[in-house]
Input
Amino acid sequence: MNRNVNRRDFLQSASAVALGLSLPSTRLMASPLAPTAPVAVAKCDTYGPAVVASLEKMFDQIGGLKKLVYGKTVAIKVNVTGDSSTRYNGMAQGATYWVHPDVISGTVYLIGKAGAKRIRIVESPTSSMAPTLEQFLTEAGWKTSDLTRAATGVEFENTNFPGKSGKYTRLWVPSGGLIFKAYDVNSAYQDCDVFVSVAKLKEHSTAGVTMAMKNLFGVPPTNIYGQKAGIDEPSKQPGGGRSMLHNGDRQPSKTALSEIDPSTPRDPGYRVPRVTADLVAARPIHLSVIDGIDTVAGGEGPWVKGMRPVHAGLLIAGMNPVTTDAVCTALMGFDPMAERGTAPFEKCDSTLKLAEQLGIGSRDLSRIELIGLPISKGRVDFRKVPQPV
Output
């Protein structure tokens, strides 16, 4: 073996070959030593005060918030996909396909109570001309004052834009990247000590499932990675959906890095899980909070035919996003060890598997300490949820 070849890279490449993966020049880690962390599951049937009580107990069960956030800057990535006006059968987004504001405010309150010095709520809306995240959420009927009053030092950031510095920051993928070596993003994602993903418990038409990890697909700004992003430089306004990340029909603005290998499949079922795994490796998640109280089955939003509401009555929290998403996948009636071609990954690669191979976390339920409600008592088979009459 060439002495200039890093031994770890060699072993990771060998693991990829052994697993039969058809990948570009990437460095994947075998899964047996992927880290694990406890995951807490609670039954919570309603929004409101019950959410705070449940979350507080769960956070204590997984190790407590104080040692994680005390005196630190915390960024909370929320899952509010699509535009601010689309609703399913007139129902509020938070009761269907967006994370509910009570779950966000409860998380903010408890992080503030644990001593965080600064809390930033961040998101990159795909279909809005609203210059601020507050305006976008207000258009959707949210009272943003409920969030700012939940703790001191709460701010909002529409991360389609570069922020006060006027420059995007580059997040490098430690593994070398599966689709991109690095992603240009709002500086809020780098200038934080603790990063939290607050997401909904849902199926996804392209990625199979969407929880803590898939929530990070909304990190890349549409001004650079959107349908209408500028060619030579980022657009001044948000550029629509991130189709280039789905199907590779174009490259990002030239100020950002082009993808590693344009000859790889243009299949969204190949690209979306890999972009997601890239982003989770580049921007590690310290705390995952999943809203499964009122959610949807069949897809991630009303634009997906067959999406339907489901009341699962669950909250899930964990310090490792892969272990958290693995438990969530099981609670939805699926096997987190499933391969492509098997539910819920019939048409896509498993983000769970890719993230495990990158050494981010384990998807093996036998290695994950589950605290609180057992999966057998919380499981809701999302594929058997009927359409409302």
Q: What stands out?
A: Residues 34-384 form one domain.
